[in-house]
């Protein structure tokens, strides 16, 4: 029990330290600077994908993966002037998260260390991270609304994660994906969706999402929160398949960078695609 309280204390203190930095950066930095800051986070995440993929920590191959990740960011930025590419990429990304989320929830065979997952992590995971980065940068660049939209996404993910955590601890009985992440429960998922729905209604009332109706804001926020769970489950699956408890040790109480942004990696493309379908900011 004391160990659990200590972990929670570290988790809260880390979050309290990071949240103000993220909020100030999103609200006050110009988009190129925000892109660079998010790019740094993504590069750190690439080092952790390398670790999960079995590459030696700090070795040449790990840094080559970081170079590959940054090249994907450059390519995504170069293609961002063609809206068709963005829609195709976002659509494929959302389809992936739907498919992997359903697959992992339905999985009943416990996950064991499996080298066959490494090519997927080393080639495919940076693609997913690059699309999340592109979605965030594209959102931030929306004239007059961008910083508010990005902050709304960050707060939505924080609210959903926090609601899931405390609802799961207080009420959790039925496992959501026992073969992949035994700690996650259906009650925790319900808490996340209630938190997201509440945030959606408040956002519509305060006009934080560019004039979306309450129904549209509620649907968007609940959908984003629902699919963000797939990002969390995928990283849990990757860690189990790699035989590791955490993706890294950079953030006390959270593990690595990926442990903190796994939900956001799935949420950002869903959020942008939802906005593009509900209204066209670009």
Description of the molecule:
The chain has nine helices and two strands. The chain is mainly α and 282 residues long. A hairpin with a 3-residue loop joins strand 1 (175-177) and strand 2 (181-185). Helix 1 (2-28) runs antiparallel to helix 6 (146-171) and helix 5 packs across helix 9. The longest helix has 29 residues, at 214-242. The termini are far apart.
Strand order in the sheet with the most strands: 1-2
**Proportion of residues in helical segments:** over 70%
Structural class: mainly alpha
Radius of gyration over alpha carbons? Answer: 18 Å
- Give the number of domains: 1
User: How much β-strand is present in the residues?
Assistant: under 5%
Number of E-state strands: 2
Q: Count up the helices.
A: 9
Distance between the termini: 50 Å
- Which geometry do the CA atoms define? globular
* Overall mean pLDDT: 86
Order of helices and strands: HHHHHHEEHHH
Unreliable stretches: none
Q: Quick one: biggest sheet?
A: 2 strands, antiparallel
């Amino acid at each position: 029990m004391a160990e659990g309280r200590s972990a929670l204390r570290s988790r809260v203190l880390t979050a309290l330290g990071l949240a103000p930095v993220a909020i100030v950066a999103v609200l006050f930095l110009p988009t190129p600077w925000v892109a660079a800051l998010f790019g740094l986070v993504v590069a750190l995440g690439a080092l952790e994908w390398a670790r999960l993929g079995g590459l030696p920590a700090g070795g040449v191959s790990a840094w080559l993966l970081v170079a590959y990740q940054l090249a994907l960011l450059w390519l995504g930025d170069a293609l961002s002037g063609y809206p068709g590419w963005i829609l195709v990429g976002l659509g494929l990304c959302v389809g992936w998260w739907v498919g992997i989320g359903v697959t992992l929830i339905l999985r009943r065979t416990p996950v064991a260390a499996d080298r066959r997952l490494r090519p997927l992590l080393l080639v495919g995971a940076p693609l997913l991270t690059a699309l999340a980065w592109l979605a965030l940068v594209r959102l931030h660049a929306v004239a007059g609304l961008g910083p508010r939209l990005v902050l709304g996404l960050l707060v939505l993910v924080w609210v959903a994660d926090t609601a899931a955590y405390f609802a799961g601890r207080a009420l959790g009985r039925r496992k959501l994906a026992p073969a992949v992440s035994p700690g996650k429960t259906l009650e925790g998922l319900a808490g996340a969706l209630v938190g997201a729905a509440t945030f959606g209604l408040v956002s519509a009332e305060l006009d934080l999402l560019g004039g979306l109706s309450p129904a549209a804001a509620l649907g968007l926020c609940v959908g984003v929160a629902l699919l963000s769970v797939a990002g969390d489950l995928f990283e849990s699956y990757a860690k189990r398949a790699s035989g590791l408890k955490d993706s890294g040790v950079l953030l006390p109480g959270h593990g690595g960078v990926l442990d903190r942004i796994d939900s956001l990696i799935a949420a950002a493309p869903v959020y942008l695609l939802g906005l593009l379908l509900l209204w066209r900011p670009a």
